[in-house]
Amino acid sequence: MNSPLIQGFIAIGLLLALEWKTLKKENRHTRWFVYGILGTSWLLWIYCSSAIDVHRPMVWLESLLEPLILVP
Amino acid sequence: MERISAHQGMLIICALTLNSTLISVPAQVIGMAKQDAWICYLIAMVIPLSAWWLISRILARFPDHDLLTIMIERYPYLGRVFGFSYLLFFLIILARDIRLISDFINIIILQNTPIVVITSLAVITAIFMTRGGIELVGRTAEIYQSALILIVLSLPIFLLREFDGRDFLPIFEASVGDLLNGSWYAVAYLGEMIALAFMVPGKQISFRHGLWGFFIAIFLLEILITFNVTVLGPELAPRFMYPNQEMIRAIRITDFLDRLDLPIIGIWMPAMIVKIGVGLFLVCHAIKQLAPKISPKSIMGPLGLFSLVCSFWFFSDAIQTLNFNRTWPAIALLFEWLIPVLLFWILKPKNGRSVNK
After folding, report:
1. Residue B79: count of CB within 10 angstroms of its CB
2. Measuring CA to CA, how many Å separate B40 from each of A47, B46, B153, B187, B194?
3. How many Cβ atoms sit within 10 Å of the Cβ of residue A48?
């Protein structure tokens, strides 16, 4: 239960179960977009939960902007 | 077509400006300008005000459209590049807000509850609210933002006993540099008011109502920072991560009403979820504008989940969200001021007339 893999599966499974009725009526663009977003979220969740050194976009952004910031 | 009233628009602008600014920013502003921190908001508000005026002028030229639609319709390629950049910008703000509220509740109220549970509950509430459309978000703002405004307005009465005017002295001691440094921390948060222009057509929001919402938020922030200084002291206030929470903990009305911080947080929390709902709606609306074949209603749940994951991916902990306030204005000023200035010059109506006339 504590595995991020299972946590992700449960969250996405629940969301798909709740959205399934609406999703069936939608066009294929919307359906594929939803699958893509859910898949990306699942992969990111697994990465954030299991990687030892997570590469965070905001840390990268901070280091990139650091030379421009004059505030102490 | 969904509509919000001018009054609701005003409250949404107030929510966008106030609700996340009052969490940690006051500590950083007081840390820079000490007892003169109240001046920092007055300096910082110049930039969002000028951006709002420029955006209002653009919206007046195209009253039937929001800013995203105007950009994409006038310049399909460049507009989409700008639109996508704004989508990323608002996604970062959404993820940051989700992280801010989750960390706050996890640190202050529910220490033993896993943070992911707190985050999920906040995001699920925001998803259900947003699925009802901008009208529902507007109506929710009418309830909770009004309540938050009343609560902050009543704080001086509750805190009068703790008020120590000597903490303000010596007045005007901070240098211009200190004041500008303090304003730097506040400017990006105050500038988030422009978000409303990206999701609501120009005829639904007026410059005047936006201004009122913004001024109410600034007035409330001034009340809070003044009492931060006078109740906690200019030396102690910057050492707290959540100075406003520490300040409302000082409220003691009677023996049995000594935990008044909990009901106050209980009113702020839904108001903050309204802000998250606005952010989620905006991200969905931006996707709809960039890819018109995608139905925005069906993607709100998955996008809510995606922003939840992003809030954990973007920020490692509460300290990083706090430190990020130092560099964030460099990016935020680009989106909240520089691009609106550019758009003001680029989005001139053809033949000098409104597109709709």
Report:
1. 21
2. 40, 10, 20, 9, 20
3. 17
Give the pLDDT of residue A2.
61
Across the interface, whether the CB atoms of A19 and B301 are under 8 A apart is answered yes
Q: Give pLDDT, residue A66.
A: 87
Predicted ipTM?
0.92
Inter-chain residue contact B324 with A58, CB threshold 8 Å? yes
Positions in chain A short of pLDDT 50: none
Best to test chain A binding among B117, B293, B305 (most A CBs inside 10 Å)? B305
Contacts of B96 (CB under 8 A, 6+ apart): B20, B311, B314, B315, B321, B324
Q: Is A67 an interface residue toward B (CB < 8 Å)? A: no
Give mean pLDDT, residues B217-234.
94
Q: Tokens 């500008």 — which residue?
A: B180
Note whether residue B1 is domain-resident.
no
Number of neighbouring beta carbons within 10 Å of residue B276: 28
Tell whether the model's pLDDT for residue B308 goes beyond 70: yes
CB contact under 8 A, A69 and B297: no
CB contact under 8 A, B305 and A15: yes
Collapsed DSSP state (helix, strand, coil) of residue B49: helix
- Give percent of chain B above pLDDT 70: 97
pLDDT score recorded for residue B1: 58
Instruction: Tell me the angle at which helices B207-227 and B176-190 cross, rounded to the nearest 10 degrees.
Output: 130
Question: From the CA of A36, how many Å to the nearest CA of chain B?
Answer: 9
The CA distance from B116 to B107, in Å, is 13
Chain A residue numbers touching B120 (CB-CB < 8 A): 11
Q: Which CATH number belongs to the domain containing residue B77 in this structure? A: 1.20.1740.10
Residues of B in contact with A56 (CB under 8 A): 313-316, 320
What is the Cα A3 distance to its own chain's centre? 16
Are B303 and B217 in contact by the 8 Å Cβ rule? The answer is no
Helix B261-290, helix B134-158: angle, nearest 10: 150
B259 falls within a domain: yes
Whole domain around residue B50: which residue ranges?
6-352
How many domains does one find in chain B? 1
pTM above 0.80, yes or no: yes
